Amino acid sequence: MSSAEILQLVITGLTVGSIYALVGLGFNLIFNATDVINFAQGEFVVLGGILTAVAVGTTGLPLWLAIAVAIALVAALGALIDFAAISRVRRGSVMTLAMITLGLAVIVKTSLLLWVGPDPLYFDPFTPGPPLRIFGAVLQLQAIWVIGIGVLVMVALKFFFSHSRVGREMLACAIDREAAQLMGINVGATVRLSFILSGALGALAGVLITPLTNATYDQGFTLALKGFAACALGGFGRASSAILGGFALGLIEAASVAVLPSGLKDSVALSVLILALMIRPSGLLGGREERRHTQAM
Amino acid sequence: MGGLPRWSAGWFAVGMMVNLGFAHAQEPIKLGVSEPLSGPASSLGIPVVESIKSAAEFINGNGGIDGRPIELVIRDDQSRADVAVQNFRRLAEEGVYGVIGPNQGSNALAVAPVLLETKVPMCGFQNTISITKLGNPYIFRCQTSDTDNTRAALKFASEKLGAKNVAVLYTGDAYGTEAFAALEVEAREMNIPIVAAEKINYGASDTTAEWTKVLGAQPEAIVLWGSGSTMSVALRNGSQLGNTAPIIGAQGVAAAAIIKSAGAAAEGIYMVTLNAPDQVTPEQQELSRIYKERNGEDYTLTIYDIIGWDAVHIYAEAIRQAAGEKEKVTEGLEKIQGLKLAGGSYTYTPESHEGLGADSVWIVQVKDGAMVGVQRGF
Fold first, then answer.
1. At what angle are helices A187-213 and A3-34 packed, to 10 degrees?
2. CB spacing of B205 vs A1 below 8 angstroms
3. Same fold, B24-144+282-347 and B147-273+362-376
4. Class of domain A3-296
5. Residues ≥6 apart with Cβ < 8 Å to A123
6. What are B85-96's pLDDT values in tens digits?
7. Bigger pLDDT: B219 or A232?
């Protein structure tokens, strides 16, 4: 295998990894506020891509406006999910809430199928033009957007959780809900905000990746699975670990194509996940707090 | 007999027979349809059922099958194998002469055991090689087989494109893996080395890694076998990585939605399929006229319009061959020789349930975003 090919596989791994990382970031947001794994996170992503594609394709909105509308709509859906379902059973266990999100994922997926049908939707990359060539390897311009915005979002989230009051309140809610409430934090509002942010972030991920991957109604589950794997690999609860886990997963997948019989890509990635969970259950970087972390799993 | 004269009893009997015969002539022939009208495969099932209805209307408008009208019994299989199995059982109970469908390969394999119980034949729309290799006497293929399609792809690559070797990208489902197995056999026979072969997961959203490996082998032509959204991703990835080798795609690639979402990356690619939308064969004229009346002059026939239309005509011919006897429809199907329909020339024998041969295979090319016929028959 030539060095250009190896470089190409690394670039592919990083591009795909950044997609997983973005999905993983959305998981982390809700997890940080509620300890719940939101299984509808993949649907947020798909919805972001599909809404934008439909807006661009049928209404002829300019791309930036279509993106803004899509993100706002999915953020609103996040709020609605919390308002109509999650907040009603806030006394339920983490498992109950996770099951609710799983049900919601099915509802969103089926509605999308009825609405836009099974065909792939697509819109053009943000920056037109041929891909960049680096030492014989190819880097797609859209991938730079995905990686760049992914890193920006990570930095912003890190700042949000460590330096803003709302961010710290959100963390406090997850660590101990009762104590947070006793300290005067409005837990309900904080959780709602986490769903809104997570919806927006999911939709943003969908918008960024659709020019690379298409948007189809049934992509959510696979995306959620990979995003979840990225989080688990890196360690739940930290923005930086979702990014690291995502990139690691993408690179492992690309490497598996190079050395193993093809078609094993997905199984290799998930086997690595299982191994990681067995050997180092709190992830590569360690979870927010190991005890709580394993409870949430 | 009482006081009735002998002759009147005789006339009565004759009258009864005439009556029965008349009733028999008018009694509709039930044809079952089990297609996906909802669920992920519905975009395939809905247009197929539309053309099945058009064909039945057309045949009934022209006197039916030996005077008897066709009555369609249409059931939605929801793109699910379990529902397809229920449908096939119910349709058999309702006394259908044969069933058209299912659409998905996995559903065809699921209903196969039911056919052995009910002894009602099915006309399936799969390219998947194995459906006619199960030893099930009731499965008939109403499509081209990937045995012919893969051969056509390789022949076209070597004879028309002058490729000395090929690489293969295929999906990991039955559709892709069976075709790849056939490609390997054909390539060996035709002495065309396969320099690289990569399996893509069905539904994959990135194929760059697989392409990198394939392009590393510097193939002179690339065969792409699969279906669904992944195919348009694969076309885009290949073009982004600077592939210049010609691509020959499967029938699953030759779908308007895939070509549209692949955009410029689909330009110039070849595909092995069942019809060239820009060319109307004499056998397609009636169908084309009906669809143009309905959808406007610009309408071009799709593969779904063609296969549904043909399936009804195949059953009509089989029922004629069976002299209208339900039990003999399977035999009737096996008597069909060179029946020229919209998709090509259909022949079934007790040994072969393939229907269409390599002569019906089209190679089309994408030009300005539309599929244009390049070559027919191999």
1. 160
2. no
3. yes
4. mainly alpha
5. A52, A53, A56, A57, A63, A66, A210, A211
6. 999 999 999 999
7. B219
Confidence class of residue B12 from pLDDT cuts 50, 70 and 90? Answer: low
Q: Identify from A46, A121, A249, A262 which residue to disrupt to test chain B contact, counting B C-beta atoms within 10 A and taking the largest count.
A: A262
Is A72 near chain B, with CB under 8 Å? Answer: no
- Contacting residues of B for A12, CB less than 8 Å apart: 206, 208-209, 212
pTM: 0.84
The total number of residues written for chain A in this structure: 297
Residues facing residue B30 across a β-bridge: B71
pLDDT score, position A88: 87
* CATH number for the domain whose boundaries are B24-144+282-347: 3.40.50.2300
Asked whether the beta carbons of residue A5 and residue B213 sit closer than 8 angstroms, the reply is yes
pLDDT band at B42 (very low <50, low <70, confident <90, very high): confident
> CB-based contact (8 Å) between A221 and chain B?
no
Six-digit token pair at A78? Answer: 């996040």
- A131 at B interface, C-beta within 8 A: yes
Q: For B22-32, write each residue's pLDDT tens digit.
A: 445 578 999 99
In chain A, which stretches have pLDDT less than 70? 90, 284-297
**B210–A120: do the CB atoms touch at under 8 Å?**
no
pLDDT (0 to 100) of residue B68: 95
Task: Indicate the SS3 state at residue B366.
Answer: strand
Residue type, A118: P
Domain positions in chain A are 3-296
B197 to chain A: closest CA residue? A262
Which CATH architecture is the domain B147-273+362-376 placed in? 3-Layer(aba) Sandwich (3.40)
